[in-house]
């Protein structure tokens, strides 16, 4: 169990310090009590310590990263007790370098089966592959009519 964060898009000190605090916070963590915020991760960083996370009580924010892969492959449930921007349980935003040669390409979440509250926003991720294959309506609670913004990169030859 780990606490999680509520920093939104704030960078904690230098990029190196920010990454170290992410590592310290989520290493060997299975349940995040508040929010899982993965931001400002540089290219070629190893995020395998995130593989243990299975449940997030608040929201998941993945933003402003240049790393190729963010492995959340064991994440099963996002409760959405707190929502990003008062709307989203999962927000994947602007994960690329200005020159667009680097950026998030893979976000494996093959075990994600339930988002109890809140919507999904995927926007401005020019290198991100396969998000259009996710059956979001099977994962989110559509009876609550959560806001959903799904902007996928088009014509990705690298996928």
Determine the CATH topology: 24 nucleotide stem-loop, u2 snrnp hairpin iv. U2 a', Chain A
**Total beta strand runs:** 9
Q: Let me know the largest β-sheet.
A: 5 strands, parallel
Order of helices and strands: HEEEEEEEEHE
Structural class: alpha/beta
What amount of the residues lies in strands? 15-25%
Overall pLDDT confidence: 93
Count of helical regions: 2
Report the end-to-end length measured between terminal Cα atoms: 34 Å
Number of domains: 1
CATH architecture designation: Alpha-Beta Horseshoe
Largest sheet strand order: 2-4-6-8-9
Protein name: EGFR factor
Keywords: Disulfide bond, Signal
Organism: Chloropsis hardwickii
Pfam families: Recep_L_domain
Task: Describe this structure as you would to a colleague.
It comes from Chloropsis hardwickii. The chain is built from 2 helices and 9 strands. With 159 residues, the protein is of the alpha/beta class. The protein has a single domain, classed as 24 nucleotide stem-loop, u2 snrnp hairpin iv. U2 a', Chain A (Alpha-Beta Horseshoe). It has a 5-stranded parallel sheet, with no helix packed on it. It has a 4-stranded parallel sheet with strand order 1-3-5-7, with no helix packed on it. Helix 2 links the parallel strand 8 and strand 9. The termini are far apart. 33% of the residues are buried.
């Amino acid at each position: 169990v780990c606490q999680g964060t509520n920093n939104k898009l704030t960078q904690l000190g230098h990029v190196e310090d920010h990454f170290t605090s992410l590592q310290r916070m989520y290493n060997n963590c299975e349940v995040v009590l508040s929010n899982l915020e993965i931001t400002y991760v540089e290219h070629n960083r190893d995020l395998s310590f995130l593989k243990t996370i299975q449940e997030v009580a608040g929201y998941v924010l993945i933003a402003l990263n240049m790393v190729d892969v963010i492995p959340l492959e064991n994440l099963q449930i996002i409760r959405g007790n707190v929502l990003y921007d008062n709307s989203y349980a999962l927000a994947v935003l602007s994960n690329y370098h200005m020159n667009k040669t680097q950026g998030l390409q893979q976000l494996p979440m093959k075990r994600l089966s339930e988002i109890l509250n809140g919507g999904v926003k995927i926007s401005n991720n020019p290198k991100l592959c396969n998000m259009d294959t996710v059956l979001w309506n099977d994962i989110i609670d559509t009876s609550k009519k959560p806001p959903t913004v799904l902007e996928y990169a088009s014509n990705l030859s690298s996928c």
